[in-house]
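U., I forgot to send this yesterday:
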Amino acid sequence: MNTPKKKEMSENYIKSLLEKRFKNVGNFRQREFNAYGGSSRPDFVLLGDDYFNYYEIKTDKDNFSRLPSQITNAIGLFTHMFIVAPSEKMIKMPGFWSMDIGMISVEELEENRSWHFRTQSYAWELSIQKVKKLLWANDLRNLIMDRCQGYKGTRKTVSELEEDFIKFYTNEDCFYILNKILPTRTYDLREHNGSKNL
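Result:
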């Protein structure tokens, strides 16, 4: 594939490269994933049996001012975070050599090469406190009922359901929950604007 001109290095172009690269990988993948109640959306996510990856795209037009808060939000909800950017952009990133996140160049995606820049040195542990925030009311009820037959939660608020949910699930259950719930969501999460009162 010929490298496109700089003006073609758009966010959508890079997302299409990620979709092509991971077409047959993992159990769930999505652009613009609603991860934080609508306040922020990872550009691309990929879920497998034992990983949940966050891909943040930085084009030539983007800056890195929000990156520290994006990393903070990602810890506990994702196992790995990758910056995906043109190589010229990546090496100018503040703290490039010290950040413990993965780096993928657009050029590597275009050429379908193995990652050359850097992989994350260790996986973050998932937190049930953060994972529960992805769940909607029906998800919470159904998961609680899986562990507590006869559970009555039809009139409870989301906050009350979350309190009950945390009694039955721990950090060790995060991948089970993610792989049970997310692949069933075949519609666009953006339509819900973070609402979990279903």
